[in-house]
Amino acid sequence: MLRKTFNNLPRFGQLCARQVRPQSTQVAAAGAPNDVEPEDISNVEERILKHADYFQVHNLFTVRDLFNARVHYGHKEGSLDDRMRPYLYGSRLGHLIFDLDKTAAHLRDALNVAAHIAFRDGIILFFNRNALNAQLVEQKAREAGEFSHTRFWRGGIFTNANVQFDAVTRLPDLCIFLNTQNNVLTQHTAVRDSAKMAIPTIGIVDSNCNPNLITYPVPGNDDSPAAVELYCNLFKEAIWRGKRKRRELLGLPPLEEGSSSKDRRSRSFVKKN
Amino acid sequence: MAQSRLEKIGTIFTRIQGLLRGGAMKAEDKPIWYDVYAAFPPKLEPRYDRPASNLPIRRIFYAEDVVRAKLHKQNRPNETISLTDHRRNTQSQQFVQLYENLRSQGALDEQRIYETTLDLLAEQRQQLRSEERADDNLGTLPSDELETNKSSLLNDFQQAEEQQTTTPTSTPGKAKKEGVGINIDSLFKD
Question: What Gene3D superfamilies is this protein classified in (chain A) (predicted)?
Answer without folding.
Answer: Glucose-6-phosphate isomerase like protein, domain 1
